[in-house]
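The freezer alarm interrupted the setup, so I double-checked each line after restarting. Inputs confirmed:
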Amino acid sequence: MSSTSEPTTDVRPSAFVRSILRRSDYAIISELIEPRTRILDLGCGDGELLAWLQENKQVEARGVELSGARVQKAITRGVSVYQGNIDNGLNDYPDGAFDYIILSQTLQEVREPLRVLREMLRVGRLAIVAFPNFGHWRVRLVHLWSGGAPRTKLFPHNWYDSPNIHFLTVHDFEELAVSEGWTIERRFFVSNDRRVIALPNLMAEIAVFLVRR
Amino acid sequence: MIVESQIVRFDSLQLDSGVVLTPVDVAWESYGELNAARSNAILVLHAFSGDAHAAGINHEGRPGWWDLMIGPGKAFDTNKYCVICSNVLGGCRGTTGPSSINPQTGAPFAMAFPAVTISDMVRLQAKLMDYLGIQRLLAVAGGSMGGMQVLEWAVQFPERVLAAIPIATTARHSAQQIAFNEVGRQAVMADPDWNGGNYYGTKPPARGLSVARMVGHITYMSDDSMREKFGRRFRAAETFLNPLDTDSIFEVESYLRYRGSQFVDRFDANSYLYITKAMDLFDLSSGYQSLGAALEGTRARFLVLSFTSDWLYPTYQSLEIVSALRARNRDVAFCELQSNYGHDAFLVDVAEETDLVRGFLASTARDRLARAS
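Predicted 3D structure, all chains:
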């Protein structure tokens, strides 16, 4: 069942990890992952996170990425990446093939988010999902004031050229977890690279969930 | 560097057909130094018409078929790795094939040469590795028919292959691929000079073999690359083209004729028949329930590459391999590279291929060290 209590263990992305990986969601993810596990990163880009995990946590790392140029960079880095899309990138894998499946900042871009999440929890023991929170106060404010599709630091695109096709909030994700019967093991909320403790649905720019089926 | 092929003779080779071939010669070359631990060897496998001369310049002044990829500082960096290449069984460039002397008759085998398979070729290469004292290969790599041998190596000798790089290849030929090969074989056999394969010491079936090669070259290029290279340019003055006027021709015709006639000088027509048949009959999954089952026992990490404009070995065939590997949870990286050069891309359009292979080999070597320590 889904738990709604705050995590008991605090994970603070070390400044070192953050400075190496630049992105605060990456920093949290890398702190979450146990050493010597099997990882699959969906939408792994040029493999920066995976290469870091491979080097520092001795994980067995795999990735899926659509962009050929990024796949090339990742393979050149020594990460085993498969060129393909996320929507059906998991089909081939057997159940429980990985310890963690990572989906970082991509959930809002896939065509069928629920199908992808279910597949993640079939193929992986745990899923790590990071996404930009559409419920952030600035998004709400911009929408309220402009009356147009909100453009913010987090959602910088025009409505017609945005890769984001599903907009979700912290609240939405937690509600889905309850209805699907997933257990949220840990959750982290970040704004301006700082932890958000209170009112995450309003205050968090980025949410990171560690989910178990 | 000037390189020369060497020849080693083995007592015998048991073939898939049941026939035991005695003796068997293998022509091979190597580039770079084998380290003391013998752990830096890479076996490179040639495509249909290739040979042992993969890199450097030979005494004829000819560069190796993958010279763009093999050498100091190149993808297969000979400052780090020892790269080995040998001519395939059934070939005509130093390794035993239909043009070799049959010890029982003292005359060339011709069509009495036994049928050979991709798996036979690989077992002969394994003998060569034994002879060189190489137990485990850092990598096996090759494109087209070379890629088939890579797959066969990974399945037949899982403990001997750390990394496998099959490029622009397939686990089995499609009807289209078999069809093109059959056109080539029929062209050879339709030439009266072929004479049932008995042309050694007389006139070889040059016209048939040359036509076969012309068809082959068309399949190695792409519509784009042919348009770019030849367009509709004429070789002679632009005049009305009379079909009988053989001097006034399109550049593409002239090119194909040139490549066809050049091929005749270095390739044996019977080898053409035997090797294309071996490719057509290759099916990695034969003897197994499925392709996935065949790949189940592999231990290598894979780098699978295909090219956008390669219509002879299209990307879907690489994806079949990748998908089967993923279903068995094997370590596989895959990328479809952008190129206009068609099937030839793996030989000529090597900039991106170089980055990928270099990075993949480096991480394989790192892994090996990490595991050893």
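Quick read of the result. DSSP finds eight helices and eight strands in chain A.
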